Amino acid sequence: MIDVKTADRELSFYLRPQTFPVAIRMLRPGEPIPDKARRPARDFKKLSMNCQVIDMARRYGWMLALTREDSICSLGIAALGLEKPTHLHKSGTLCEGMYTETKEAGQRSEAAVDQFAPGDYGALLVAPLDRAPFEPDLVCVYGNPAQIMRLTQAALWKRGGKLTSSFGGRVDCAEIIVTTMRTDQPQVILPCSGDRIFGQTQDHEMAFTIPWGQMEAIIEGLKGTHAGGIRYRLQALVRRPRAGLSDRRLVRRHPRRPLDRGVLHERAAGDHGDTELLREIPARCRACL
After folding, report:
1. Could you give the CA distance from residue 93 to residue 101 in angstroms, rounded to a whole number?
2. Exposure of 7 by Cβ count < 10 A (0-12 exposed, 13-18 middle, 19+ buried)?
3. CB atoms within 10 A of CB 192
4. In the predicted model, is pLDDT for residue 255 greater than 50?
5. For 56-67, b where at least 16 C-beta lie within 10 A, e where not — what string?
6. Percent of the chain with pLDDT over 70
7. pLDDT reported for residue 223
8. Pairing mode, strands 123-128 and 64-66
């Protein structure tokens, strides 16, 4: 089984995410919380939310534990089974007028949110993957669409086909944790409004979850697709204007870099770059570029 430090190193090499991949574990009732884990109510004198502790782990590098006594988000509390849902969760009232037009539509939205049974778990534990002192149930990686695409490609390296995920635009903590653990399948995550408002998730960010038991397969998929020529960052193909030289002559004089010459790799030998190319184009033609 791969260890957390190796998994983090491989993810960082192939994806270069801006924030730490997050190790996530749901603790059973009575399972001890690590001594070094920060507790929002105790240490910050404030209550917090599922999305906020994930955000603090991925941005600040902290390990945090969230119990019912630390949590303020009723939707997140119900999703993780830290407390029995109230009648408001099932009635559609929490959706009506904000996410849905009617209570009936809101009821369908509430019913679509995956939830753990009340009492199954006692706490949410999160930490940056490379320094997690526990075996995670899953890993959550935030990134831009191109990085999430690479993880999707990696997940399909062996099995092919397509990856199936569902999106509700709300309560994405349930999709990150509950859906991933229940299905034991990687999930593409569309961060919800709460994650963006309270969890500091930016407009350009998405997320991807990996069940810990599939981490080795995902790393192998990243390596395989990398060897096949797919990279992050991808190099866009831009056709140059003719500018006094035929396209064929441009290509012959200045061959394109191979696909495997990405940002992570050195420039191909003999590739002099755009500056030298421009010098060879007659001055009178440069205005066409």
Report:
1. 10
2. buried
3. 24
4. no
5. bbbbeebbbbbb
6. 82
7. 96
8. antiparallel
Q: Which amino acid is at 186?
A: P
Q: Is the dihedral of CA 125, 232, 150, 171 positive or negative?
A: positive
pLDDT tens per residue, range 91-125: 988 899 988 999 999 999 999 999 999 999 999 99
Widest Cα–Cα separation across the chain: 77
CA atoms of 28 and 19, how far apart (whole Å): 28
**CB 81, CB 117: distance < 8 Å:** yes
Residue 66 has phi, psi (to 5 degrees) of -125, 115
CA angle, corner 47, sides to 124 and 178, nearest 5?
A: 30
* 80 and 178 Cβ atoms separated by less than 8 Å: yes
Mean pLDDT rounded to a whole number for the chain:
86
Structure tokens at 215: 């981490």
| The 3-state secondary structure of 265-284, one letter per residue | CCCCCCCCHHHHHHHHCCHH
Two tokens, residue 236: 């866009």
Which residues does residue 48 pair with via DSSP β-bridges, in sequence order?
Answer: 71
Residue 105: which residues within 8 A CB-CB, separation 6 or more? Answer: 92, 95, 96
Helices (H), 37-159: 50-60, 74-79, 87-91, 103-111, 145-155
User: For residue range 261-275, what is the model confidence (pLDDT) as tens digits?
Assistant: 344 444 455 555 555
CB 182 within 8 A of CB 37: no
pLDDT of residue 193: 92
Check if the beta carbon of residue 48 is closer than 8 Å to that of residue 57.
no
Please name the helix (run of DSSP H) or strand (run of DSSP E) that holds residue 52, with its range, or none. helix 50-60
Contacts of 243 (CB under 8 A, 6+ apart): 281, 285, 286, 288, 289
Q: How far, in whole angstroms, is CA 223 from its chain's centroid?
A: 18
Q: What is the mean pLDDT of residues 57-80?
A: 95
pLDDT tens digits, one per residue of 79-96: 999 998 888 888 988 899
